[in-house]
Amino acid sequence: MNFESINIWCWLIPILVGVLCSVFGYLLGKGGNTAIDLSSELNFLKDQNAKLEADLASCNKKIKDKNSEVVPSKISFDKNAAKAAFGKNIKPDDLKVVEGIGPKIEGLFHNYDIKTWKALSNTSVRKCQEVLDSGGDRYKVHDPASWPMQAKMCYEGKWKELHKWQEEHKHGKL
Fold this sequence. Notes:
Blueprint: H1 3-31, H2 39-70, H3 79-86, H4 103-111, H5 117-121, H6 125-134, H7 147-156, H8 159-168
């Protein structure tokens, strides 16, 4: 073996590899500079987005119109129907009709300006629990999960359904 020729190859091979890599890198980099025109696709997607937004607005308007048609602004209280279902006189917006609400809990709701069946039916269960918590530890045993639903039945005058529900679910628990 000739050690003088090996020494030349140790220098020649890395230089040759470096030159080849530089040439390939230049050629690959030069080919990547061509810009792709995506403006037509962008315009298509913008048009499609505008159509979808218009459809969404139309659907929201239909839902709003349906909701305004379905629920009248004021439902009258029929004391005779309430008396027929419960067998006793019911006063308008008496929160004690709701299973689980007594005079003291009704007072707590009045403190939070929740004085009608409609107001209670629009109250979240979390807010009902907050009202109970404001009364202290003695109200922890109460479960307000069904109270907004029962209040909605009262507000809508569904006395038979409410009475049946209360008979099936003693203590107002779901």
